[in-house]
Amino acid sequence: MSDPIKSEASAGAPIKTDVLIVGAGPVGLFAVFELGLLDMKAHLVDILDKVGGQCAELYPEKPIYDIPGHPRVTAQGLVDALMEQIKPFHPTFHLNDMVETIERIGDPLFRVKTEAGKVFEAKVVVIAAGGGSFQPKRPPIPGIEAYENKSVFYAVRRMEAFRGKRLVIVGGGDSALDWTLNLQPIASHLTLVHRRSEFRAAPDSVNKMLALVEEKKIDFVLGQIANLEGENGILRAVAVKHNDGTTSTIACDSMLPFFGLTMKIGPVANWGLKMEGELIAVETVGFETSVPGIFAIGDINTYPGKLKLILCGFHEGALAAQKIHRYVFPDKKLTFQYTTSSTSLQKKLGVA
Predict the structure, then answer these.
(1) Burial of 168 by CB count in 10 Å (0-12 exposed, 13-18 middle, 19+ buried)?
(2) Which residues contact 140 (CB under 8 A, 6 or more apart)?
(3) Which DSSP string do the residues of 17-73 spell out, in sequence order?
(4) pLDDT of residue 58 exceeding 70
(5) pTM
(6) Which of 108, 113, 222, 308 has its CA 20 to 30 A from that of 10?
(7) Contacts of 324 (CB under 8 A, 6+ apart)
(8) β-pairing verdict for 224-231 and 234-241
(9) Phi-psi map region of 166: left, alpha, beta (phi>0 left; psi -120 to 50 alpha)
């Protein structure tokens, strides 16, 4: 996928930043803006392969009616606008990855490790993970567990891993169609399997996929995966049950099922924070957690009177940035300024 996003690869030395934001949904993106106005740099980690969180992944074309100043905006439109708004602050995104551990190593300083092996050193951590991390739904295929992460994959972390492979992609949403279009040029053969001829993906993606079928560059099969054939976790073929009750076999090296996502609190529960159920308890001055230097904003937090609205998450991000400034710049006095009248803020935004 071609996102205009800077992403650093894993390296020997830790990645150092003022603030590490866990979650790149709308609230995490707006936090970049508020932090940037106060001269704080941010890196963001998200388990998805694109920015936008739940908005971009689950309902990109769904209209939202309660964003101030926007009587109607699509979820993807809101994400696009936020990305444009934070351009002056050059945030770094680490996608397709998940924070696993957070360890205090200074005051203030945290060492954060991710599933992909990246190590960050950040003065402050902001958790903006919505309802938790998105986890892929496992399709109801007998014995699929034995093939997972060997020849069955729920995400594409490196496209090159599929070069020259016979691929079967399963699903009818944006992820299935996007990866069909992106992997077709490098796969030796690609088959898209979906249980019906209607798709939940963007019309342009569907049209491009159908054109590839017409050109015989990929195959499209109506049906559902019934069984996997192989041994020691390595696929040889998949059996497809068609809507008329017949079955057929497709030879393949790897299968990518995209059956949607489910929300799970994930490793957050192990970070030593005070929890109320599956939500993080925070105070309401700066939305700091029970661990000094770790903040939680958006749907992941809870406090008396909490409303799970994007606009409330924006408010929490603005107040959190004020308190975070004390950790990042303990010897620097913070003077409150308005973007409408402050020439220094306007210069940061590139409008003065």
Answers:
(1) buried
(2) none
(3) EEEEEE--SHHHHHHHHHHHHTT--EEEE-SSSSSSHHHHHH-TT-EE--BTTBSSE
(4) no
(5) 0.69
(6) 108
(7) 19, 35, 38, 40, 124, 126, 286, 295
(8) antiparallel
(9) beta
Q: Yes or no: say if 348 and 88 are a contact pair by the CB < 8 Å rule.
A: yes
What secondary structure does DSSP assign to 78-137, as a single string? HHHHHHHHTGGG--EEE-S--EEEEEEEETTEEEEEETTS-EEEEEEEEE--TTSEEEEP
Average pLDDT over the chain, rounded to whole?
A: 91
* DSSP H or E run through 220: strand 219-222
Question: What is the tens place of the pLDDT at every residue in 204-244?
Answer: 999 999 999 999 999 999 999 999 999 999 999 999 999 89
Q: Which amino acid is at 257?
A: P
Ranges of H-type helices in 238-348: 310-328, 343-348
Query: What's the pLDDT tens digit per position in 87-128?
Result: 999 999 999 899 999 999 998 899 999 999 999 999 999 999
C-beta of residue 179 within 8 angstroms of C-beta of residue 267? no
Cα(80)–Cα(51) distance, rounded to whole angstroms?
9
What does the DSSP 8-state code read for residue 263?
E
Which pLDDT value is given to residue 136? 78
Three-state DSSP at 225 gives strand
Beta bridge pairs of residue 106: 109
**Range with lowest mean pLDDT among 67-76, 151-160, 238-247, 283-292:** 151-160
